[in-house]
Design a protein that fits this description.
The protein is an alpha+beta fold. 34% of the residues lie in helices and 31% in strands. The strands form three sheets. Strands 3, 6, 9, 10, 11, 12, 13 and 14 form an eight-stranded mixed beta sheet that branches. Helix 1 packs antiparallel against helix 2 and helix 3 runs antiparallel to helix 4. The longest helix has 27 residues.
Length: 294
């Protein structure tokens, strides 16, 4: 009965989301070419999501940003009637490229965390650097990491790995060091929903202590280029709690509005004190750059 009840509730909420986008689409005249329209949002919910796939807000968030990023990286050409086709089309095309470039920068400044990874060979000293855009910072769910600061310290600490060195022409030991290259408006911290105990071949809910933290300081994990020039203090704005197992469970969202916290448990919305949040474990925690928040 409980399982049937969860399935029914899941279908109701997913269908409500699709219906909402359909109603918005019917009432407004949206540009069908761009990603930011209700039809695209509805298609995401219809094709890639279902009540029994254990999808989360993070899955939707990543797919949404992936679609926008893909579109903005490929300039759109629109057919228009022109008196001097070649010259006018070139000017229009350059304007579209310029607009999309500005939009891409806006998306990056808001949501993309740039992480630089440096691999240094212990034998020859050669280095390989890569910079990657990430939608979130995935932290290890460990009983030894008590608090977000400790988890961040472990995440950015140097790590030893073995790989093929193109200079030594053999497998050698490398030191991997990661640093933050920017401070976007929002940062999403993501913890695994559950710990896996491989020796038992079982999975269970993590027994880690509460990981709620009101403020976040990333200066010590940032590159020297931005440590003194960019703000690095964040304050929490929302979090998502997962209750259950690997294969089934329930999400509850918590959001801060006007310095008050509210719990969103399906259709039930209630006020909750910040003190009660400190004892909970969260799957996702959303932080906003402090200067922007104020």
């Amino acid at each position: 009965d409980a399982i049937r009840g969860c399935e029914s509730r899941g279908k109701i909420h997913l269908n409500s989301l699709k219906n909402l986008f359909s109603e918005i689409e019917a009432q407004q005249n949206y540009d069908k070419i761009g990603s930011l329209n209700p039809k695209m949002l509805k298609d995401l919910a219809s094709i890639d999501f279902s009540f029994n796939k254990q999808n989360s807000a993070y899955d939707y968030y990543c797919q949404f940003l992936n679609k926008i990023k893909a579109e903005l990286k490929e300039p759109t050409r629109k057919s228009i009637s022109l008196s001097i086709p070649n010259q006018s089309f070139l000017l229009m095309d350059e304007k579209i490229i310029s607009d999309q470039s500005k939009q891409m920068k806006l998306i990056e400044d808001c949501f993309f965390l740039k992480i630089k990874r440096v691999l240094a060979c212990n034998q020859c000293g050669s280095k390989v650097e890569t910079i990657k855009d990430e939608y979130s910072m995935e932290l290890e769910d460990s009983l030894t990491c008590l608090g977000i600061k400790a988890c961040l310290s472990k995440h950015f600490s140097p790590k030893k790995i073995s790989k093929q060195c193109s200079i030594c022409v053999k497998e050698t030991e490398f030191i991997e060091q990661s640093t933050i290259m920017n401070t976007p408006k929002y940062i999403l911290l993501r913890f695994p929903r559950a710990e896996r105990f491989y020796f038992r071949k079982l999975s269970s809910k993590s027994k880690r202590n509460g990981n709620f933290q009101s403020n976040l300081e990333l200066k010590s994990f940032a590159s020297s280029e931005i440590q003194d020039s960019s703000p690095s203090k964040y304050e929490i704005k929302g979090c998502i709690e997962f209750m259950g197992r690997i294969d089934t469970g329930h999400y509850v969202s918590y959001c801060q509005r006007a310095n008050k916290w509210f719990s969103f448990d399906d259709e039930c919305v209630t006020h909750i004190s910040e003190g009660k949040l400190k004892s909970k474990r969260f799957h996702l925690l959303l932080y906003e750059l402090e200067t922007e928040a104020k």
